[in-house]
Amino acid sequence: GIRLAPKEKLEIPVLFMPAEMKIYKAVVVIHVMRENGENWPYVVTAKSNTDLNRNITVAENGKTQGILWIYPINGTSEAPQQKSVVIRCQARQRLEQRVELLLIGVLPDATAVPDAGNSAVVDVDESSNTSEVTDGSPATLEFLYELQYQSDEIRSQLESLVGMQLVEKEWDTKSRIVTLIFNVVFAPSKPMRNEAAVIIQCTAGGLWKFPLVFIATEPEVDDVINIEAVGLNKESIVGLKLTSQTR
């Protein structure tokens, strides 16, 4: 019973409050009819456009009684923000660290497969990885994980310095907690402090974000240069070589 004037906008609020970490789907259908009750002159025939016919309601005389707009809604449950994991390494050194990430509220559902709408929530590119968790689980759970950066500038600084690989997984059926253990490699070339996030998505539904803080401290002193004076008011010269790691 909402009246809409020509060129007027209609805002439809949508509230999403998930109770569990699973995939939710709904459809918003808008049915528009003329205020005077008359039909549109479009007549449905055997040669009519099939896609167009799906979005109309037809009267007894075959003319168009109403027009439908159908908007699918895909809801992805996202876990609350987790505490940051700090990975600290001295510049010009290489660190391998095991990081345990707890996924709380995982629902085992082998039939749940995310569609295009859900997969678009996480920008999964070729560098993303898929892993199955079957330890003690009645169903096969698949996870997508990706290291996401806050900006292109941070990506250019960290992408070649950080490596991440899933090495172990554990499934607790009573608490419904999946533990993913990652091996993180950090090899900074200079002091820095940058942030990233691990985005994990389960095919049965649910999205988890784990912030990571990468800190590279000052490197060790390369060498000590001793200059011996040859006399007062006389110059002493010591030569040293510096090698650039880039072009």
TrEMBL record:
Q: Which Pfam families match?
A: Ig_CFAP47
GO CC entries: cilium
Tree of life domain: Eukaryota
Q: Where is the CFAP47-like immunoglobulin-like domain?
A: 77-217
Q: Which InterPro entries match?
A: Ig_CFAP47
Give the GO terms filed under biological process for this record. Answer: sperm axoneme assembly
Protein name in UniProt: CFA47 protein
Q: Which organism is it from?
A: Toxostoma redivivum (California thrasher)
